[in-house]
Amino acid sequence: MKEKLEKIMNDAVEKINISAKLEELNDIRVAFLGKKGELTSILKSMKDVAPEDRPKVGQLVNEARAKIEGVLEEKKTALASAAREAQMKAETIDVTLPAKKPMMGHRHPNTIALEEIERIFIGMGYEVVEGPEVEYDYYNFEALNIPANHPAKDEQDTFYINSNIVLRTQTSSTQVHEMEKGKVPIRMIAPGRVFRSDEVDATHSPSFHQVEGLVIDKDVTFADLKGTLAEFAKQVFGEDTKVKFRPHHFPFTEPSAEMDVSCFKCGGKGCRFCKGEGWIEILGCGMVHPHVLEMSGIDPEEYVGFAFGVGLERIALLKYEIDDMRLLYENDTRFLKQF
């Protein structure tokens, strides 16, 4: 029995010593010390040993177990230490190397232009109001005095979801929602994304942004509109900027006008930027049509107002002298980080 125990112990120690992985040590522990291990089998066969020899055999089994466990623990410690050392070498960091500089985000030219526009009008006492991009036909057209047979309602210009719902073609619909609340006076701008069925080119896109303004109050005149937009143009394009109003037609305003600003590159003398005209078309505006006020529940005999709308991309293109609208949406960081 003693020779058998010594053989088991020597076999166990030899296997432990040649083990190269911690997983192998666990297999050895199970094979020799587990419930079905070789030492356990000897303990189970103690019934076949003479009663007077059982204490001695039990002592030998315990000594062999202690020996195997001791060698196992030493080997486990050695393998764990070696694995840790190898890991440290593999994951060594040279703290003297320069750190990787994270790529920081950058505001888009549209965002920069919009924040400037909002700052200007908030400074004049305006409120910034947002509205839904998916809009009812009524708010997008009819409430703005655009009847059913108007060319603007042609499917070639507008994205229709069904006969009653469209992707808004202008943020003027937000103004209608505000007027219907009946809280006058109103001083607001409505920035947001709009959609029109246009081909993509240097100056057109099926999705772009507008900033529309609305003022409703008593005793508002076209002079108030002119003064407001003249101040806006000076703050955006420079103190020396002049404005010019040309008669135009919009269904929702009467009288209506297109506003030009003097070329901020040549001072109105004429150059390549303004195509030799000295003026640059910038926005449309006018006095709110009385019928639009009536449809929104505002008495046109008591209240009047003016409205204007400017393309956000147009402001960005002019302000930063960008010659192709598509550059704004290509997400090329080489272009965007210039602003």
UniProtKB/TrEMBL annotation:
Please name the GO terms of the biological process aspect recorded for this protein, alphabetically. phenylalanyl-tRNA aminoacylation
The EC number on file is 6.1.1.20
Residues annotated to bind Mg(2+): E254
Q: Where does the record say this protein resides?
A: Cytoplasm
- A Pfam family cross-referenced in the UniProt record is Phe_tRNA-synt_N
- Indicate the quaternary assembly: Tetramer of two alpha and two beta subunits.
Q: Which HAMAP family does the entry link to?
A: Phe_tRNA_synth_alpha1
The protein depicted here goes by the name Phenylalanine--tRNA ligase alpha subunit
From which organism does this entry originate? Answer: [Clostridium] polysaccharolyticum
